[in-house]
Amino acid sequence: MKVHFGKYFLTLVTVLAVTVFFSCESNFKDVQRINAVPFSPIGEAEHVNLKYTDSGRIKAILVSPLLLDFSNLKYPYTEFPKGVFVTLFDERGNKSYVESDYAITYAKTDIIDLQGHVKITSSDGKVLQTEQLYYDQKNEWFFTEKYFKFTDANSYLEGKGIDFSKDFSVMNAQQNRGEISKIE
Fold first, then answer.
1. Taking the model in full, what pTM does it have?
2. Lowest CB count within 10 Å: 11, 114, 117, 159, which one?
3. SS3 20
4. Whole-Å CA distances, 28 to 18, 33, 34
């Protein structure tokens, strides 16, 4: 009788040990999945004031209440969920301004997406306003499919869809109306 009790006891202990081992593995993976946050930023910064310099000269100043760095993802990006205000300096020291309620820049494509009350004011008084504007950093080109309004000292133009160079020297409007007194 002792022999049978020992066999059953050993079998029972073995079955319990295997069950516990496999159930712990399964639970551990579930816990890992629960704790994983898919879009967690690698860094956060509040009250951001970034200065971009080249050859000792300031080229741009970016001010934002909040910066979220997602450079840890497969498609890295930097997000400014509370907006940006950017001051750009040309080679003569003239200032232009870009502001929006929200901005996101994609590292792999060098595309910047500005959203919500986007306004660009150039050093010579040209103003473009829209709800969303993209900027291609490689080609230094702005574009949108949204409604826009462009004004300067001699012109007024509004419509849907526009693309233009960063200095407004080349503009292509898709559907527009307005008044142009003098083309410079």
1. 0.74
2. 11
3. helix
4. 15, 9, 10
